[in-house]
């Protein structure tokens, strides 16, 4: 037709975390690709414990270590339990898949909702923590945390819109550096009798709470934020190299050990150096300064921490689309998202995630301590669900030696359930209420969508037999603004599709209308021209009304809209908007076929005529 | 066809500032509708002067009054000059229209660019000032200015997306209250020997600059921000009730007098009470506290000020679309914007404006003093241009007594030109460079767009004569995912448009493909079915490739895409995305007609079959 080389049809599809390293991850690689979120939570976990305890005075912070030990114990149980999850669900999918398989619809909706909420919170929390750690090194940024966060978010969004190809290799270095850094802080720090340098400005703590069970529970639930992210490995077993299950299990254990070491090490150091929260610096930054002084090592460490946290935030941009595609396949999100490999599609998810995270950050003004109470609850819901699912699984299958396994899972489930309740209750006022509100709303949304899709399918398959197609005479209406080559091609196309063709033009000035009539008469293409005058500055609605009338007369109508297609994509925004507007309005009418005729404009094209 | 009541076709079109009060404004109404931007600038204008002077020590602030007098004089000249602009250009349009008529293409581009930049800055500056004044009453907000600003911006955006119908009446009360408030502060304050109450915390000023001409120039240019917005009346003469010109001129004078009174009054008060900048409060808030104490009157005043500033920010949301439609009519912006009355269209403008303002606010972290240096420059470019235009106008027409008029305009032009240069140079380092960068870029953009449109028009009208349309045999390809009523209707429509119809289906699983074949055979509609298997999770690209091949075989192809149209709009997001995706990709191919067939789904509809 037009002598143009066909456009490239297979643009490089971005590879997501869910696909990036498909069938390629080693244990170490898995740790890099899947654990940043979990590992970086040591930056805010221990700090959260101290912050909670200090409400009962500085002396109360001595309880930090025991609480950390409890949390480490919980971590141990979770790791053991997740090794089983991995073995039982080698196809991954995490708590949502588990719940769907073994626990039924409602529970799976709960799992899905909590996962979505947590992915969003991971972005916000990691960015806020990153900003805080950056501000510890550069106090000038202290007054501009929100700006820093939003800038970081903008960068992440841009990168993910372009499509990221982050294989495990890319993440390996930052992950290793971060872990090494934290461990170095711990080791070096423990050898120091007292901190080399003290950063930040002292705070005065007025005792606002009594030291007691409630406070300890609060501190515990605050510390549980350190456990977020350890489920990621179980969600992504298919990404591992064979033997998948074994590798994934090893990775899970590795993560558990590393995480426990870091948390306990940091807490020991906090105890040894009698560290209390100080204005303008994170506790981890204080520990780093205590270990290395405030030289370049300190700056390097805080920068690495910030980078690691930014990458942790980035994981959600990769993981959420995977979950959304699962949900879409189950009719619980718009089908659109089931095609996450389609180039333009994943962008909606990215932008949506960015917007919600942005609102969250603005709402709490990038204050980490105001975000943390919302965090971790969803994670614990996931923990509990996947372990209950496991119990159900063992009890139904009953293989040899299933009893001890059930015991472990049941114990873990009970533990995490209790922890979850503690989290929800102790943090309810300070923000958990929001999660308790949003999660059910998400569940409602998912089930409404599911209901819609099923009802439509039923409606469409109501009749047993389908009729064979019978052609019906159709009128093609062609809206034109000018008499030019576009008009020529539009009429050619229209006459090729139907014998009954009418051209309509809407003009907001009288002389324009006259000019149009004259030109038309001069061309005389043998097609009727109807001229509508529209006093207001709107051309679309009069055309709509015109089409309405035609439909009202009982005609079968198709509207053919020529669209100028510039040779350079960058010019597309300059064309067709009016046509697309009309097309959009018409399509909602539900009675008119809208035909879009692309007209290439440019020398090459016009020559090839 | 389907027995459904046709949808309402004329949704209430939002009325913009540019149209809201069309042919209805009285002088007072005009003041309310068009001057909030100008009047509210007294909140930051005088403060900017003091802030500039205090760099040379507290004593230097004594120069505030003389500088304010100079600015008042400049204001006088501008008012006189704008009375002439109004008389000469009763159709409004402001500096852009003037430049287009009397000064040629390039100048008009400059005018347009500066106007656009200033509309955006008005939003950011007004919001930042509003946040500052709110924080003066509620110090707790002091650390969250950015959050406050972004919240305000979100509200404005939401309101404007819904479409505002703010007639002058709506704005009258806030405007009057604000003006009355400021004047009350001045009058009451001047009767006090010393401030009743002092708010904010004292600052220490270390002298960073010598007192001299440069400092005075800086202070002057800082104070010129108080003149922003006085051009708005001349831009909107058509909105006035007859006799338009006279009313508009009166309004301009009224504005000038009111503005001058407020500025000078505030400055006198600053002098009398020896007010210097204090931490956490605006100077206007200090004056208010000095006059009324910190009782409820103080809170009422600051709240009114905040409201007025928010409404001032809102004016841009109304004015920018008007300017953009002018530019679009001149081929200097996408034609889309010329139809600002089309319901969905104005939203793009609103969102774009909101986004840019958001970026600006984040970039300066909502610090007013970091935004002001960017402000006012564009305004002065506009001032100068419109007055030079006036000079040109008189010199060409030469009516009786044109000489004095030219004199005034020339004098005004010279003054504002000098002021503009002073502004640009003195503020260059502190931010004006940004404007100096963006304005030329906007000009470039506008002229590129203009060039594109003209080239397209030429390309389309190259051939003298047009051929009459000759039908060509067309193949209709129908992509289907299922064998159901959608398929039935799609085939009916396809066969009505062409005799050669092919159905194609892309399935990512083998058994799905088989099932499809079986159902097809059972239905046997007498149309060929091609099944494509797509291993990846993408269905769109294989279909593209299929269509590609058909086109490659030299066929004239139309692709008919059935779209499910749910009865409730809220469900639309759940359908058709895949189809629209395909349609979008196809349309960029420039060779295929894309036909969208809406299929209503819902009991009513299926019954009416």
From TrEMBL, chains A, B:
One Pfam family matching this protein: AA_permease_2
Membrane topology: Multi-pass membrane protein
Chief localisation class: membrane
Gene3D superfamilies to which the protein is assigned, alphabetical: Amino acid/polyamine transporter I
Keyword annotations from UniProtKB, A to Z: Membrane, Transmembrane, Transmembrane helix
Transmembrane regions listed in the UniProt entry: 50-80, 109-132, 144-163, 170-191, 211-233, 253-270, 296-327, 348-368, 374-394, 406-424, 430-447
Compartments, as annotated in UniProt: Membrane
Record's protein name: APC family permease
Originating organism: Streptomyces halstedii
